[in-house]
Amino acid sequence: MKQSLEVICKKLQGKDYKLTPQRKIILKVFLENEQDHLSAEDIYQMVKHHYPEIGLATVYRTLDLLADMEVLQKMNFDDGKARYEFSSHNEHHHHHLICLRCSKVIEFNDDLLDVLERAISEKKNFDVINHELKFFGYCSECK
Q: Is the dihedral of CA 9, 62, 56, 28 positive or negative?
């Protein structure tokens, strides 16, 4: 899902949040690395070269704010770090393949769980809104 900085900025300003230079550069990092699943530490390393006075705590606070506003989605890939990607409210959630050796995260967009969701809905009278599926293994470079 392609995001635009203008749309995100309007959302922030519509909620009475200031678009500080720190928030703007963090958003730019996400837009430039949209296919990656970045941690706060990853973002900090990328941002500090262009904005040396930024602190890691500022990155964490900004990520928490963007996740609370549902601009970003916070994920746990069981590697001890929270990772983030743009929220995808209009799309069915994709799945993730996580390499146990190099920690690469690969998105898998085919949704093979539609049949299971329907069965759950019919048999248990439970409305499935979304699901999360993670596969752990070894990527092609680490096999």
A: negative
Positions of the chain with pLDDT lower than 50, given as ranges: 1-2
Q: Which helix (H) or strand (E) holds 84?
A: strand 82-86
> Tokens 């837009």 appear where?
31
Report H helices in 15-113: 21-32, 40-47, 56-68
Q: What is the pTM of this model?
A: 0.67
Which pLDDT tens digit goes with each residue over 106-117? 877 776 788 888
Give the whole-angstrom CA distance, residue 115 versus residue 78: 27
Contact 39, 82 (CB under 8 A): yes
Alpha-carbon 93 to chain mean position: 11
Residue 18 CB neighbour total at 10 angstroms: 8
Q: Return the CATH fold of 5-86.
A: Arc Repressor Mutant, subunit A (1.10.10)
Q: How many residues does the chain have?
A: 143
- CATH superfamily name and code, 95-137: Ferric-uptake regulator, C-terminal dimerisarion domain (3.30.1490.190)
